[in-house]
Every structure is written in structure tokens, then in C-alpha cells.
Structure prediction request, 308 residues.
Amino acid sequence: MFDEYTMSELTSILAMQGFAGLILFSVLVLMALGLAIIFGQMGVINMAHGEFMILGAYVTYLTAKLFETYLPSLFDGYFFVAMGLAFLASFALGVLVEWCMIRFLFKRPLDTLLATWGLSLILQQLYRTIFGAREVGVTLPDWMMGSYPLSETIEVPINGIFVMVLTLFISLCVYLLMFRSRWGKQVRAVVLNRPMAGAVGINTEKIDRYTFGIGCGVAGVAGSAFTMIGSTGPTSGQLYIVDTFLVVVFGGAQSLLGTIASAFTISQSQSTLEFFLSGSMAKVITLLLVVGILMLRPQGLFALKIRH
Prediction:
């Protein structure tokens, strides 16, 4: 497999694939952070999480068209507006879904899984009806175009660097929200002991609603980032949902650090293997490695001790 490459070529390939893996890592982290918040705090398996990501992507697409048509002089900064709108749209839909459906299915994991799967199909058809079945692409500002040369043979795309910086910023915001805010303390109290949290005056229903909304909002921001590396279609979210669940389970459902470490491990192994093998074989080998590790450590890479 490696015989046909010189050492210099192999080094360049591994470096380029490593950076491609970092871009995939960034999208997986943004997706998995939202899912880890929902699954870790509420125990809800949200099969429609990919559709919340695609909602953010479509909001970014519409914002780009709006600025391109009516505010061309401000087009270079539209992406920051689009990310805020993507978060708000996904957050609002998440809160609505929790209020209309999820709260009635609490502690019924199979029913929740089936209900959110049905929701994903409804959202896919809704996107297909509004935006059409064909994939759409977002026009990037000029400052995001091009690449930055690291050496004569290694170049990294500027939009990829932006996605990684965005992921670092969102991860920091989630950390501060979960571990340095009053709301985060309440969330962790509910995770550790829900009956006791309710007994001391914490509104657990409100915590659940806003937790679900914030998790979906982070997925919307992931959708904005996704538009920079791929086209957006009604079913695009399904391409990432399996990998996202894999990241959350492998990292440990209640651990944000485990989610990040898991996303990095899976994205790097998958990106490197895809260059030398087919995409399906890369996924199979990655899955086998994850399953093997989970057999030895079923709680994931990191796990919290939960009091019942």
C-alpha cells in the first residue's frame, strides 16, 4: 500500500489527509457536542439531529442569497450573521419539538427514537418541498477562498482553518456554559440526581427544554460550518448522523472532553484510511476499532459517575 510512494510524498499525503481529518473532526465535534448535551442530560436519542444541522445549512444558504441580492457591500461579513441565525432557527425548532413531543416521551427511549426518526423524515420532505431535491451550494466571501501554503507540497484551505477556529470557539462557549454558569450547574445537578435537583427547586422541565434547544442550536451552527465543505441537500444530515452517534458513544455520553477526543480519533483514522482504501472499507475498519475498544471499555473513553 505504501510501496508506490516516496517518503516525501507519503509525508505530504499524511499531512494533507491529517488536515482533511481536522476539518471532518470540526464538523463532527459541532454535531456531537449538541447530541452529547441532549443524550447525556436527557437520555434522548435524537434521530433528527442531522436535520437540525441541515436547517442551519439552509438558513446559511438563504442568508447568503439575501446579502448577495440586497446587501452586496456587506457580503464579506454575512457568514457571521448566518451562524447566529442558524443557531436561533435550530434552537427555536428544538424548543418547539421538545414542548410538542419529547416531553411526553421522557424515559421511553424506544418511543423517542421512533418519534425523532419520524420527525427526521418529515423535515427531509419539508426541505425537499421548499428547496427542491437538488443540492445547493453557498457562495463564500473572497477572504475565505484559496489556500495557505505550508510547504511546496502542502497547502491548507483557508475555509478549513476558519471551520477549525469556529469549532474551538464553540467548544469553549459550551464549556463555559456547562461548567462556569449557573444554568450549567443546574444541568449537571439534573444529570447527577434528577429527583434531588427537583426537590431543591430546580425546574427540571425547563432545564430539559432549553437543553434540547441548545443542543439543536449547536447542530445548526454545525450546519453553517458544513456549507463550507459540502453541498446542502434534504438528506445531507443523514450522512453524518451515524458517525455523530458513534462519536458520542465512543467518547462517553456525559463527557464533553470524551466527545472531542472521540471525534478526533475517528475523523483522523477515517480520513487517513480513505486515501489508501475505499471509503466504505475505511468506515468498516474504523467501526471495528471502535467496537473493539468499547468491548474493553463499554462506558466509553470518558464517563461520569451518575447517582440514581
In short: Residues 20-241 form one domain. The first strand starts at residue 147 and ends at 149. Strands lie at 147-149, 155-157. Residues 7-42 form the longest helix (36 residues).
